[in-house]
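Reopening this ticket.

The earlier resolution said the output was attached, but the attachment link was broken on my side. Pasting everything inline this time so it's all in one place.
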Amino acid sequence: MRWTVLRRAAISFLLGALAVMAGARTRPHYGGTLRVEVEGDALTAPDAVARRLIFDGLTRIGADGDVEPGLAERWEAQNGDHRWEFRLRAGVHFSDGTALTASAVEGALAAACGAGCPWTAVHAVGTAVIFTGDAPMPNLPALLAGGAYLVQRDGSIQANGVSLEGPYVGTGGFAIDGFANGVLTLGANDSCWEGRPFLDGVVIAGHKAVRDQWLDLSVGRADLVEVPPEQLRQAREQRLTVVESGPVELLGLSILETGALAAPQLRAAIALAVDRGALGNVIFQKQGEVTGSLLPQRVTGYAFLFPAERDLKKAAEVRGGLTAPPLLLSAESGAAMQLAAQRLALNLREAGLNVQVAPTGRQGRGELALVRIRLNGAGPAAELEGLMRAAGSAPPVMEKTPAGLYRVEREFLERHTLTPLLYLPRAFAVGARVRDLRLAPDGTPLLDGVSLEDAP
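Inline output:
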Protein backbone atom coordinates (compact mmCIF):
# COMPACT_ATOMS: atom_id res chain seq x y z
CA MET A 1 0.00 0.00 0.00
CA ARG A 2 2.82 2.35 0.95
CA TRP A 3 4.67 1.56 -2.31
CA THR A 4 1.53 2.31 -4.33
CA VAL A 5 1.17 5.71 -2.67
CA LEU A 6 4.82 6.54 -3.23
CA ARG A 7 4.61 5.43 -6.87
CA ARG A 8 1.57 7.64 -7.45
CA ALA A 9 3.33 10.58 -5.84
CA ALA A 10 6.41 10.04 -8.03
CA ILE A 11 4.28 9.85 -11.16
CA SER A 12 2.41 13.03 -10.19
CA PHE A 13 5.70 14.81 -9.55
CA LEU A 14 7.10 13.66 -12.90
CA LEU A 15 3.99 14.77 -14.77
CA GLY A 16 4.10 18.13 -13.02
CA ALA A 17 7.74 18.59 -13.93
CA LEU A 18 7.04 17.71 -17.56
CA ALA A 19 4.16 20.20 -17.61
CA VAL A 20 6.42 22.94 -16.27
CA MET A 21 9.09 22.10 -18.84
CA ALA A 22 6.52 22.10 -21.64
CA GLY A 23 5.21 25.45 -20.47
CA ALA A 24 8.72 26.86 -20.46
CA ARG A 25 9.24 25.63 -24.01
CA THR A 26 5.99 27.13 -25.28
CA ARG A 27 6.20 30.44 -23.41
CA PRO A 28 7.50 33.19 -25.74
CA HIS A 29 10.99 34.50 -24.98
CA TYR A 30 12.06 38.12 -25.26
CA GLY A 31 15.24 38.83 -27.16
CA GLY A 32 17.11 37.70 -30.25
CA THR A 33 17.24 38.89 -33.84
CA LEU A 34 15.13 37.38 -36.60
CA ARG A 35 16.88 37.05 -39.97
CA VAL A 36 14.58 37.50 -42.97
CA GLU A 37 15.38 37.28 -46.68
CA VAL A 38 13.13 38.42 -49.53
CA GLU A 39 13.35 38.56 -53.30
CA GLY A 40 12.06 42.11 -53.70
CA ASP A 41 12.48 45.39 -51.90
CA ALA A 42 12.31 45.21 -48.11
CA LEU A 43 10.85 48.64 -47.40
CA THR A 44 9.49 50.89 -50.13
CA ALA A 45 6.81 48.79 -51.88
CA PRO A 46 3.31 49.01 -50.29
CA ASP A 47 3.40 45.29 -49.47
CA ALA A 48 7.09 45.14 -48.43
CA VAL A 49 7.63 42.90 -45.43
CA ALA A 50 9.14 45.66 -43.27
CA ARG A 51 6.38 48.23 -43.67
CA ARG A 52 3.87 46.84 -41.19
CA LEU A 53 6.66 46.39 -38.66
CA ILE A 54 7.52 50.09 -38.79
CA PHE A 55 4.21 51.77 -39.65
CA ASP A 56 0.60 51.51 -38.53
CA GLY A 57 -2.64 52.49 -40.23
CA LEU A 58 -5.71 54.17 -38.83
CA THR A 59 -7.43 50.80 -39.11
CA ARG A 60 -6.48 47.18 -39.68
CA ILE A 61 -8.20 44.01 -40.86
CA GLY A 62 -8.66 41.27 -38.27
CA ALA A 63 -8.40 37.54 -38.88
CA ASP A 64 -12.18 37.36 -39.34
CA GLY A 65 -12.20 40.10 -41.99
CA ASP A 66 -13.65 42.76 -39.72
CA VAL A 67 -12.20 46.26 -39.61
CA GLU A 68 -10.45 46.85 -36.28
CA PRO A 69 -9.05 49.97 -34.59
CA GLY A 70 -5.45 50.91 -35.26
CA LEU A 71 -4.15 54.42 -34.70
CA ALA A 72 -7.79 55.46 -34.72
CA GLU A 73 -9.72 54.09 -31.75
CA ARG A 74 -13.15 54.85 -33.23
CA TRP A 75 -14.80 56.37 -36.29
CA GLU A 76 -18.21 57.33 -37.60
CA ALA A 77 -19.79 58.13 -40.95
CA GLN A 78 -21.77 61.30 -41.51
CA ASN A 79 -23.74 62.91 -44.33
CA GLY A 80 -24.53 59.66 -46.11
CA ASP A 81 -20.90 58.39 -46.05
CA HIS A 82 -19.67 61.63 -47.65
CA ARG A 83 -17.87 62.53 -44.42
CA TRP A 84 -15.94 60.32 -42.01
CA GLU A 85 -14.48 61.30 -38.66
CA PHE A 86 -11.65 59.18 -37.20
CA ARG A 87 -10.69 59.82 -33.57
CA LEU A 88 -7.01 59.17 -32.85
CA ARG A 89 -5.85 56.97 -30.02
CA ALA A 90 -4.37 59.02 -27.16
CA GLY A 91 -0.76 58.72 -26.05
CA VAL A 92 0.72 57.32 -29.26
CA HIS A 93 4.21 58.43 -30.29
CA PHE A 94 6.41 57.91 -33.30
CA SER A 95 9.54 55.86 -32.66
CA ASP A 96 11.62 59.06 -32.38
CA GLY A 97 9.45 60.29 -29.51
CA THR A 98 7.35 62.75 -31.50
CA ALA A 99 3.67 62.65 -30.56
CA LEU A 100 1.19 61.37 -33.12
CA THR A 101 -1.14 64.21 -34.07
CA ALA A 102 -4.03 64.60 -36.44
CA SER A 103 -1.91 67.05 -38.45
CA ALA A 104 0.81 64.42 -38.86
CA VAL A 105 -1.76 61.89 -40.09
CA GLU A 106 -3.24 64.45 -42.48
CA GLY A 107 0.17 65.16 -44.00
CA ALA A 108 1.07 61.49 -44.31
CA LEU A 109 -2.18 60.47 -46.00
CA ALA A 110 -2.29 63.50 -48.30
CA ALA A 111 1.15 62.49 -49.57
CA ALA A 112 0.32 58.79 -49.81
CA CYS A 113 -1.89 58.76 -52.86
CA GLY A 114 -2.26 62.28 -54.26
CA ALA A 115 -5.15 62.55 -56.69
CA GLY A 116 -5.79 58.80 -56.53
CA CYS A 117 -7.07 58.81 -52.94
CA PRO A 118 -10.46 57.25 -52.10
CA TRP A 119 -11.40 60.61 -50.57
CA THR A 120 -11.58 64.15 -51.97
CA ALA A 121 -10.01 65.94 -48.99
CA VAL A 122 -8.52 65.13 -45.59
CA HIS A 123 -8.29 67.60 -42.68
CA ALA A 124 -7.03 67.60 -39.10
CA VAL A 125 -9.50 68.95 -36.54
CA GLY A 126 -8.23 68.70 -32.97
CA THR A 127 -7.61 65.00 -32.27
CA ALA A 128 -9.74 63.90 -35.23
CA VAL A 129 -8.93 63.27 -38.88
CA ILE A 130 -11.81 64.23 -41.18
CA PHE A 131 -12.24 62.73 -44.66
CA THR A 132 -14.72 64.23 -47.12
CA GLY A 133 -15.70 62.98 -50.53
CA ASP A 134 -17.65 64.23 -53.53
CA ALA A 135 -19.13 60.72 -53.68
CA PRO A 136 -20.10 58.45 -50.76
CA MET A 137 -17.23 56.45 -49.24
CA PRO A 138 -18.93 53.45 -47.61
CA ASN A 139 -15.77 51.32 -47.61
CA LEU A 140 -13.30 53.91 -46.34
CA PRO A 141 -12.45 52.26 -42.97
CA ALA A 142 -11.51 49.02 -44.74
CA LEU A 143 -9.58 50.80 -47.50
CA LEU A 144 -7.53 52.71 -44.92
CA ALA A 145 -6.19 49.38 -43.66
CA GLY A 146 -4.28 48.93 -46.93
CA GLY A 147 -0.51 49.13 -47.11
CA ALA A 148 -0.62 52.33 -49.18
CA TYR A 149 -2.22 54.26 -46.30
CA LEU A 150 0.13 53.45 -43.42
CA VAL A 151 1.10 56.56 -41.46
CA GLN A 152 4.69 57.66 -42.05
CA ARG A 153 6.50 60.75 -40.86
CA ASP A 154 9.34 62.50 -42.65
CA GLY A 155 12.61 62.30 -40.82
CA SER A 156 16.32 61.89 -41.32
CA ILE A 157 17.69 58.61 -39.98
CA GLN A 158 21.43 58.18 -39.54
CA ALA A 159 22.19 54.57 -40.43
CA ASN A 160 25.66 53.14 -41.06
CA GLY A 161 27.00 56.60 -41.69
CA VAL A 162 24.34 57.27 -44.32
CA SER A 163 21.50 59.73 -43.86
CA LEU A 164 18.20 58.21 -44.97
CA GLU A 165 15.95 61.08 -45.98
CA GLY A 166 12.33 60.16 -46.28
CA PRO A 167 9.13 59.15 -44.51
CA TYR A 168 10.74 56.29 -42.58
CA VAL A 169 9.56 57.08 -39.03
CA GLY A 170 6.51 55.19 -37.79
CA THR A 171 4.60 54.14 -34.69
CA GLY A 172 5.02 50.37 -35.12
CA GLY A 173 6.83 47.78 -33.06
CA PHE A 174 10.17 48.36 -34.79
CA ALA A 175 12.26 51.29 -36.00
CA ILE A 176 15.05 51.50 -38.54
CA ASP A 177 18.50 51.09 -36.98
CA GLY A 178 20.54 50.72 -40.14
CA PHE A 179 20.57 50.19 -43.88
CA ALA A 180 23.57 49.11 -45.92
CA ASN A 181 24.19 46.94 -48.98
CA GLY A 182 20.50 46.12 -49.32
CA VAL A 183 20.19 44.92 -45.71
CA LEU A 184 17.64 46.67 -43.48
CA THR A 185 18.22 46.47 -39.72
CA LEU A 186 15.30 47.10 -37.37
CA GLY A 187 15.33 47.46 -33.60
CA ALA A 188 12.46 46.95 -31.18
CA ASN A 189 10.49 50.10 -30.38
CA ASP A 190 10.34 49.94 -26.57
CA SER A 191 7.71 52.69 -26.42
CA CYS A 192 5.34 51.19 -29.01
CA TRP A 193 1.71 51.89 -28.10
CA GLU A 194 0.89 48.17 -28.46
CA GLY A 195 3.79 47.09 -26.26
CA ARG A 196 7.31 45.99 -27.00
CA PRO A 197 7.64 43.05 -29.44
CA PHE A 198 9.34 39.85 -28.26
CA LEU A 199 12.22 40.22 -30.72
CA ASP A 200 15.08 42.63 -30.07
CA GLY A 201 15.50 43.15 -33.80
CA VAL A 202 14.80 42.03 -37.35
CA VAL A 203 17.37 42.00 -40.14
CA ILE A 204 15.86 41.92 -43.64
CA ALA A 205 18.04 41.22 -46.66
CA GLY A 206 16.33 42.31 -49.88
CA HIS A 207 16.89 41.36 -53.52
CA LYS A 208 17.94 37.80 -52.66
CA ALA A 209 17.25 35.05 -55.17
CA VAL A 210 14.92 32.37 -53.83
CA ARG A 211 17.61 29.74 -54.40
CA ASP A 212 20.00 31.69 -52.16
CA GLN A 213 17.27 32.24 -49.56
CA TRP A 214 16.63 28.51 -49.23
CA LEU A 215 20.34 27.78 -49.00
CA ASP A 216 20.75 30.31 -46.20
CA LEU A 217 17.76 28.79 -44.39
CA SER A 218 19.23 25.30 -44.65
CA VAL A 219 22.57 26.34 -43.11
CA GLY A 220 21.08 28.56 -40.42
CA ARG A 221 21.93 31.96 -41.91
CA ALA A 222 18.25 32.86 -42.31
CA ASP A 223 15.13 32.23 -40.22
CA LEU A 224 12.35 33.22 -42.60
CA VAL A 225 12.42 33.09 -46.41
CA GLU A 226 9.93 33.30 -49.23
CA VAL A 227 8.30 30.38 -51.01
CA PRO A 228 6.85 31.51 -54.37
CA PRO A 229 3.59 29.73 -55.32
CA GLU A 230 5.24 27.88 -58.19
CA GLN A 231 7.79 26.39 -55.76
CA LEU A 232 5.41 25.31 -52.99
CA ARG A 233 5.46 21.69 -54.10
CA GLN A 234 9.25 21.68 -54.18
CA ALA A 235 9.37 23.22 -50.69
CA ARG A 236 7.16 20.46 -49.32
CA GLU A 237 9.29 17.80 -51.02
CA GLN A 238 12.34 19.29 -49.33
CA ARG A 239 10.44 19.12 -46.01
CA LEU A 240 10.66 22.83 -45.34
CA THR A 241 8.36 24.16 -42.63
CA VAL A 242 5.97 26.27 -44.68
CA VAL A 243 3.35 28.77 -43.48
CA GLU A 244 0.87 29.39 -46.31
CA SER A 245 -2.05 31.77 -46.82
CA GLY A 246 -5.17 31.20 -48.85
CA PRO A 247 -5.53 32.78 -52.31
CA VAL A 248 -4.69 36.43 -51.58
CA GLU A 249 -3.04 37.76 -54.74
CA LEU A 250 -4.74 38.27 -58.09
CA LEU A 251 -2.61 37.74 -61.18
CA GLY A 252 -4.20 39.75 -63.96
CA LEU A 253 -3.60 41.16 -67.41
CA SER A 254 -3.94 44.95 -67.41
CA ILE A 255 -4.99 46.35 -70.81
CA LEU A 256 -4.78 50.02 -71.79
CA GLU A 257 -8.02 51.36 -73.26
CA THR A 258 -6.28 54.11 -75.22
CA GLY A 259 -4.10 54.17 -78.29
CA ALA A 260 -3.73 50.85 -80.08
CA LEU A 261 -6.30 49.14 -77.86
CA ALA A 262 -8.94 51.87 -77.78
CA ALA A 263 -11.39 49.61 -79.64
CA PRO A 264 -13.31 47.53 -77.05
CA GLN A 265 -13.52 44.63 -79.51
CA LEU A 266 -9.73 44.20 -79.39
CA ARG A 267 -9.67 44.19 -75.61
CA ALA A 268 -12.52 41.67 -75.51
CA ALA A 269 -10.66 39.42 -77.98
CA ILE A 270 -7.57 39.52 -75.76
CA ALA A 271 -9.62 38.49 -72.72
CA LEU A 272 -11.07 35.53 -74.64
CA ALA A 273 -7.69 34.38 -76.00
CA VAL A 274 -5.79 33.88 -72.75
CA ASP A 275 -5.23 30.32 -71.51
CA ARG A 276 -5.53 30.43 -67.73
CA GLY A 277 -5.31 26.67 -67.37
CA ALA A 278 -1.84 26.51 -68.89
CA LEU A 279 -0.64 29.26 -66.56
CA GLY A 280 -2.04 27.52 -63.48
CA ASN A 281 -1.06 23.96 -64.35
CA VAL A 282 2.36 24.45 -65.95
CA ILE A 283 3.95 27.66 -64.70
CA PHE A 284 2.41 27.87 -61.23
CA GLN A 285 2.37 24.10 -60.71
CA LYS A 286 -1.34 23.88 -59.80
CA GLN A 287 -0.81 26.07 -56.75
CA GLY A 288 -3.05 28.86 -58.04
CA GLU A 289 -6.81 29.13 -58.44
CA VAL A 290 -7.93 29.79 -62.02
CA THR A 291 -10.41 32.67 -62.11
CA GLY A 292 -12.42 34.78 -64.52
CA SER A 293 -13.60 36.87 -61.58
CA LEU A 294 -11.95 39.74 -59.72
CA LEU A 295 -12.76 38.20 -56.33
CA PRO A 296 -12.24 34.54 -55.40
CA GLN A 297 -15.16 32.17 -54.93
CA ARG A 298 -14.65 31.97 -51.16
CA VAL A 299 -15.26 35.75 -50.86
CA THR A 300 -18.37 36.19 -53.01
CA GLY A 301 -19.82 32.78 -53.81
CA TYR A 302 -20.52 33.85 -57.41
CA ALA A 303 -17.08 33.69 -59.06
CA PHE A 304 -18.14 30.59 -61.03
CA LEU A 305 -20.54 32.79 -63.03
CA PHE A 306 -17.59 34.44 -64.80
CA PRO A 307 -16.22 32.15 -67.54
CA ALA A 308 -12.52 31.31 -67.35
CA GLU A 309 -12.18 29.05 -70.41
CA ARG A 310 -10.23 30.04 -73.50
CA ASP A 311 -12.34 30.57 -76.65
CA LEU A 312 -10.24 31.37 -79.73
CA LYS A 313 -13.20 31.03 -82.09
CA LYS A 314 -15.22 33.62 -80.20
CA ALA A 315 -12.14 35.84 -79.91
CA ALA A 316 -11.87 35.88 -83.71
CA GLU A 317 -15.58 36.65 -84.05
CA VAL A 318 -15.40 39.51 -81.56
CA ARG A 319 -12.32 41.03 -83.18
CA GLY A 320 -13.86 40.84 -86.64
CA GLY A 321 -11.62 42.57 -89.15
CA LEU A 322 -9.92 44.83 -86.62
CA THR A 323 -6.16 44.74 -86.51
CA ALA A 324 -3.72 46.21 -84.03
CA PRO A 325 -0.13 47.37 -84.44
CA PRO A 326 2.59 45.39 -82.63
CA LEU A 327 1.85 45.34 -78.89
CA LEU A 328 4.22 45.20 -75.95
CA LEU A 329 3.52 43.05 -72.89
CA SER A 330 5.43 44.04 -69.77
CA ALA A 331 5.86 42.06 -66.56
CA GLU A 332 7.83 42.42 -63.36
CA SER A 333 11.12 40.57 -63.05
CA GLY A 334 11.14 37.02 -61.77
CA ALA A 335 11.27 33.74 -63.65
CA ALA A 336 7.62 32.80 -63.16
CA MET A 337 6.28 36.21 -64.19
CA GLN A 338 8.47 36.28 -67.28
CA LEU A 339 7.42 32.74 -68.25
CA ALA A 340 3.78 33.68 -67.70
CA ALA A 341 4.21 36.74 -69.92
CA GLN A 342 5.79 34.61 -72.66
CA ARG A 343 2.92 32.13 -72.45
CA LEU A 344 0.33 34.92 -72.70
CA ALA A 345 2.13 36.46 -75.66
CA LEU A 346 1.97 33.06 -77.40
CA ASN A 347 -1.78 32.85 -76.65
CA LEU A 348 -2.36 36.25 -78.23
CA ARG A 349 -0.24 35.49 -81.30
CA GLU A 350 -2.41 32.42 -81.85
CA ALA A 351 -5.39 34.81 -81.81
CA GLY A 352 -3.84 36.93 -84.58
CA LEU A 353 -2.24 39.67 -82.46
CA ASN A 354 1.41 40.63 -82.72
CA VAL A 355 2.58 40.69 -79.10
CA GLN A 356 6.15 40.82 -77.82
CA VAL A 357 7.31 40.62 -74.19
CA ALA A 358 9.24 43.60 -72.87
CA PRO A 359 12.75 42.72 -71.69
CA THR A 360 13.26 42.48 -67.93
CA GLY A 361 14.19 45.86 -66.49
CA ARG A 362 12.52 47.89 -69.22
CA GLN A 363 11.23 51.22 -67.92
CA GLY A 364 7.52 51.97 -68.13
CA ARG A 365 4.85 49.54 -69.26
CA GLY A 366 3.47 48.28 -72.52
CA GLU A 367 -0.06 48.32 -73.86
CA LEU A 368 -0.43 45.08 -71.89
CA ALA A 369 0.97 44.42 -68.42
CA LEU A 370 0.99 41.34 -66.22
CA VAL A 371 0.20 42.59 -62.72
CA ARG A 372 -0.29 41.26 -59.19
CA ILE A 373 -2.91 42.86 -56.93
CA ARG A 374 -3.10 41.92 -53.25
CA LEU A 375 -6.34 41.49 -51.31
CA ASN A 376 -6.32 42.97 -47.81
CA GLY A 377 -8.76 40.49 -46.26
CA ALA A 378 -11.73 42.87 -45.83
CA GLY A 379 -15.33 42.28 -46.85
CA PRO A 380 -16.39 41.78 -50.50
CA ALA A 381 -17.45 45.38 -51.21
CA ALA A 382 -14.19 46.85 -49.88
CA GLU A 383 -12.12 44.19 -51.64
CA LEU A 384 -13.88 44.85 -54.94
CA GLU A 385 -13.37 48.60 -54.65
CA GLY A 386 -9.71 48.11 -53.72
CA LEU A 387 -9.08 45.90 -56.75
CA MET A 388 -10.85 48.29 -59.09
CA ARG A 389 -8.85 51.22 -57.74
CA ALA A 390 -5.62 49.29 -58.18
CA ALA A 391 -6.66 48.68 -61.78
CA GLY A 392 -7.19 52.40 -62.39
CA SER A 393 -10.94 52.62 -61.87
CA ALA A 394 -12.09 54.77 -58.96
CA PRO A 395 -15.90 54.62 -58.49
CA PRO A 396 -17.04 53.72 -54.96
CA VAL A 397 -18.71 50.35 -54.52
CA MET A 398 -22.05 51.08 -52.89
CA GLU A 399 -23.57 47.62 -53.23
CA LYS A 400 -23.52 45.13 -50.36
CA THR A 401 -25.66 42.25 -51.61
CA PRO A 402 -24.15 39.43 -53.72
CA ALA A 403 -26.45 40.36 -56.63
CA GLY A 404 -25.39 44.01 -56.46
CA LEU A 405 -21.70 43.18 -56.20
CA TYR A 406 -21.98 40.77 -59.12
CA ARG A 407 -23.52 43.53 -61.24
CA VAL A 408 -20.74 46.01 -60.35
CA GLU A 409 -18.03 43.45 -61.09
CA ARG A 410 -19.62 42.36 -64.37
CA GLU A 411 -19.89 45.95 -65.60
CA PHE A 412 -16.24 46.57 -64.73
CA LEU A 413 -15.02 43.37 -66.42
CA GLU A 414 -17.02 44.13 -69.56
CA ARG A 415 -14.67 47.08 -70.14
CA HIS A 416 -11.82 44.54 -70.46
CA THR A 417 -9.20 46.79 -68.88
CA LEU A 418 -8.23 44.05 -66.43
CA THR A 419 -8.52 40.35 -67.23
CA PRO A 420 -8.33 38.14 -64.10
CA LEU A 421 -6.15 35.06 -64.56
CA LEU A 422 -5.21 33.33 -61.30
CA TYR A 423 -5.46 33.71 -57.57
CA LEU A 424 -2.20 32.83 -55.83
CA PRO A 425 -1.32 32.12 -52.20
CA ARG A 426 1.56 33.67 -50.29
CA ALA A 427 3.94 31.41 -48.37
CA PHE A 428 7.07 31.51 -46.24
CA ALA A 429 9.46 28.87 -44.91
CA VAL A 430 10.74 29.18 -41.35
CA GLY A 431 13.67 27.80 -39.41
CA ALA A 432 13.40 25.57 -36.36
CA ARG A 433 13.92 28.35 -33.82
CA VAL A 434 11.01 30.52 -35.07
CA ARG A 435 7.83 30.32 -33.02
CA ASP A 436 4.30 31.66 -33.41
CA LEU A 437 4.54 32.95 -36.97
CA ARG A 438 1.13 33.91 -38.33
CA LEU A 439 0.09 35.56 -41.58
CA ALA A 440 -2.19 38.58 -41.87
CA PRO A 441 -5.34 38.29 -44.02
CA ASP A 442 -3.31 39.67 -46.96
CA GLY A 443 -0.54 37.09 -46.45
CA THR A 444 1.95 39.47 -44.78
CA PRO A 445 3.97 37.75 -42.01
CA LEU A 446 3.04 39.13 -38.58
CA LEU A 447 6.47 39.38 -37.00
CA ASP A 448 5.46 41.47 -33.98
CA GLY A 449 4.24 38.32 -32.24
CA VAL A 450 7.14 36.08 -33.26
CA SER A 451 9.69 34.87 -30.74
CA LEU A 452 12.84 32.74 -31.01
CA GLU A 453 13.31 29.42 -29.24
CA ASP A 454 16.96 30.10 -28.41
CA ALA A 455 16.45 33.71 -27.26
CA PRO A 456 18.35 34.41 -24.02
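Reporter confirms the inline version is readable. DSSP finds 13 helices and 23 strands in the chain. The first strand starts at residue 33 and ends at 37.
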